[in-house]
Amino acid sequence: MIDVLITLLGRENVLTEREDLIPYSFDATAVFRRMPAVAVFPRTAAEVSAVLKLAASHKVPVVARGSGTGLSGGSVPTEGSLVLCLVRMDRIVELDARNFTLRAQAGVPTQAIFEAADAAGLFYPPDPGSMKVSTIGGNVAENSGGLRGLKYGVTRDYVMGLEVVLANGDICRLGNKCVKDVAGYSLKDLFIGSEGTLGVVTEVLLRLLPRPAARQTILATYARMDAAAATVSAIIEAKIVPCTLEFLDSKTIRCVEDFARVGLPLDAEALLLIEADGHPAAVAEDAARILDLCRENGATSVRLAADAAEASRLATARRSAFSALARVKPTTILEDATVPRSELARMIRFIQATAARHRLDIATFGHFGDGNLHPTFLTNERDTDEMHRVELAMREIFTEALALGGTITGEHGVGLAKKAFLREQVGDASYALLKQVKRTLDPGNMLNPGKIFDL
Fold first, then answer.
1. 214-323: in CATH 3.40.50.720
2. What is the pTM of this model?
């Protein structure tokens, strides 16, 4: 099989040595590691199709992968599998300014898509924290979110079409540039968020927006967590929808300031980073009202970024939260329990109490505006007893999120990390339906087996 792969793709696009394969044995979760038998780097959908047909003939499981920035174990290979790495499919095929669309191969970094749109006076909103290195194919596979999710939604909201290679090697093209199209089932939506278990996304057609003409960034600090949560509720009740409405707890604030040195207050229990965007007049009006609402709801300090440079520094500080926390302990486990906004303060208090009860170090930050929290476990995977307590705490946190009407994942996906909790969320009938879809499209269970659920 290896010889055929080399013939198909070229020797430089096939890795077989163990030391070369180590980087492809894990993703950003860090706690899951499994060695593949081979990693290949196709450059076209036709090559992906040929590889899948070959793998099927040898009954070798295939795990598609981008940059490996996923946080649920979704691209961790099964032992002895073939890793199909799409990072060399890195071409922006077309930017159509007349139709506000961009077509890109799966391996194009998200940041490159944002920059290409920006250069044309357009805007691609989804912005996962890893956007500088994560690929658009991976974003589609995980239905990634990001800081701008409150106002602009997630990856699914911008996918107009896909090129997908099925388990049998068939190449399907789904969707088009039409703003309205209701012909048949919306098959493209089936593959968004499917984590590579139903097909391999090789090309994406994205919807773009006009670039916002103005932005204003606000930093508000609080002595009490409940006051920060009340501010979020007040902003939404005032019919204001900011571009971002982000939150850091006290532990995260201290770690970020130590890492980024942007002047964050170290005595605050909570911090809100808020950005309004749109027409200049509307942004100025919204920013003024947000400042008032922050003060009315108990902010100890509120400041408007003086210029674009300061706004960029504050945004960079928020985006560095995971990196800052990862310096504290050998192992950092970033989760993403999500609850309705009205339950945010209660959920955060529960996370804090859970950390104390299990003697764990947990920092929390996230997208306050859409209820997406990132409880981050600072631990050491070599400490068996502590890792057991992490597992217990994690289960309690997800159970509480579901009890509050939430979800086990707002943007990271299920993968390996959360598949044990999925049935509890969706129920028996929906769980069986998920498996039925998988069996229909991948009857040999060849694509990313063991992710989301076990067959």
1. no
2. 0.94
